[in-house]
Write a structure and sequence with these properties.
By secondary structure, the chain is of the alpha/beta class. The protein folds into two domains: about 120 residues, Rossmann fold (3-Layer(aba) Sandwich); about 170 residues, Rossmann fold. It has twelve helices and twelve strands. Helix 7 packs across helix 11 and helix 9 packs across helix 12.
């Protein structure tokens, strides 16, 4: 008896792109295609779609708007955004609204795209029987630890106020001191600036997601670079990417949803599959990440280990 093919929905206003993608995927998957974002949502409502792949720039509804609505209709459908433009606002919306699995730039490599699609579909198949996660009331009363990595005390004070007395909020201004904290305490949420006194925190954030899959990260920064945001989606599964200057209302909503997401991952471990990260192919970042991972292992072995040298 033949196996039922997984279902992949392709959305792009260019028929040529749809034909190319359809030819690439039709042997392995049951492929649905449309140039209309609203039709895509109707397909999601009637079919059990494992993966939706959407272009960003479409005339009626953008890819990020579509994927945000897709998440509401079918939370366990994996979401990938395709784009041929360096659009930093779209990349940030893809994190904050679409909670996408991967952000892929056009033109794509066929093998890399097939591999990414296979990974996303495999995860979706594992999530098929997961219902809406209702976090038990008793777990809602358990306080979490939130680490703020930022030189700006105003960010720490805002997070502390918004998290409330129920949760512990700890402030660090350097990556070295933050890593010590992460190695010796169970941190649920990291709120991090990308540029701190001892360097760019991007590689550290990517490494932490590999070391602590449940850790939920909110990046809060004035840096707006499309490729950086894309790499933090693909290689760190950053949960929220917020711009400075600080908007307290947006930060409050982000913290609330991040706490809920962390508790869902704890309650249903299979959901951690959906935050699996892409391998970092940058040789320099690989080396830096290995040093950070080794530093964390030494810290975990020595407690606070003040004599341990920080990673260079």
């Amino acid at each position: 008896m033949s196996m039922v093919k997984a279902k992949v929905l392709l959305v792009d206003d260019e028929e040529r792109i749809l034909r190319t993608l359809g030819m690439l995927l039709k042997m392995q998957y049951q492929v649905f295609t449309t140039t209309d974002g609203h039709e895509a949502l109707r397909i999601l409502e009637r079919e059990k779609i494992h993966l939706i792949i959407s272009d960003q720039r479409m005339p009626v509804i953008t890819g990020t708007q579509l994927l945000r609505q897709a998440k509401k209709i079918s939370p366990n459908t994996m979401r990938i955004l395709l784009t041929g433009y360096a659009d930093v606002d779209a990349a940030m919306d893809a994190v904050n609204e679409g909670e996408i699995f991967r952000y892929i730039n056009k033109p794509w490599g066929p093998k890399e795209l097939r591999d990414t699609i296979a990974e996303a579909v495999g995860i979706a198949q594992k999530l098929e029987h997961v219902q809406d996660v209702k976090v038990a009331l008793d777990t809602r009363t358990v306080g979490l630890t939130c680490l703020v990595l930022d030189e700006d005390v105003a960010v720490y004070e805002a997070v502390k106020e918004l998290m409330g007395a129920q949760h512990q909020v700890v402030w660090r201004t350097t990556m070295a001191s933050a890593l010590t904290m992460l190695a010796t305490q169970q941190v649920a949420i990291l709120v991090s600036e990308l540029q701190v006194s001892d360097g760019d925190a991007s590689v550290m954030i990517k490494t932490l997601k590999q070391e602590y899959p449940e850790l939920q990260t909110i990046v809060h920064t004035s840096f707006k670079d499309t490729m950086r945001v894309a790499s933090l989606i693909n290689q760190a599964q950053v949960y929220r990417y917020l711009p400075k200057p600080l908007r307290k209302g947006l930060l409050g909503k982000s913290l609330e949803s991040t706490v809920e997401r962390y508790r869902q991952l704890q309650a249903v471990p299979v959901l951690r599959e959906a935050v699996r990260v892409e391998k970092n192919e940058n040789v320099q970042e690989q080396a830096a990440g290995s040093r950070i991972a080794e530093y964390l292992r030494r810290l975990r072995g020595k407690g606070f280990g003040s004599a341990v040298a920080s990673p260079a």
